[in-house]
Amino acid sequence: MSRPILFACPADIELAADPICPDWVIDGQPRARSRRLAESADGTSSVMAWSCSAGRFNWQYDVDETVHIISGEVFVTDHKGQTRRLGSGDMAFFPAGSRSTWYVPVEVRKLAVCRHSMPRLFGTLLRVWNKVAHRLSGYSVIFVEPESDLAPQPEQQAEPRVAPEHITAR
Length: 170
Hints:
about 170 residues, mainly beta, seven-stranded antiparallel sheet, about 40% strand, globular
């Protein structure tokens, strides 16, 4: 059965409030907003549009996250204290379990592809399954199930993210 193809313009999509955990905020009053654009049928992957106003905060990655900066800039400091600027058009990968400090001088907007990690054995089995399914059907197995409506939604107040105990504001 064929699934619909999703088209979106993440730079223009209306986002809803998605507060950063107050314990993670180091400086300023960063105001984050986000919107899930798509999710895989098995729930292991999603695509998000996200923005944040100026501020400095810690971030913990519970899933693998690949980001593509759409507009603005951010300075990301890793666990070794190395800082890297990401601006419009730049991309970065944050593996699950990593953490960083984000300094956002002016509003930043990104597209994020988030994926739950799975044990290597399961990943291998999934690739074998996809190859077999492809050969039998002549089509690739696609695990994307987009939301049906990407029209702007009214603002919704989301619950703040919860800070892990091992990350504290400086």
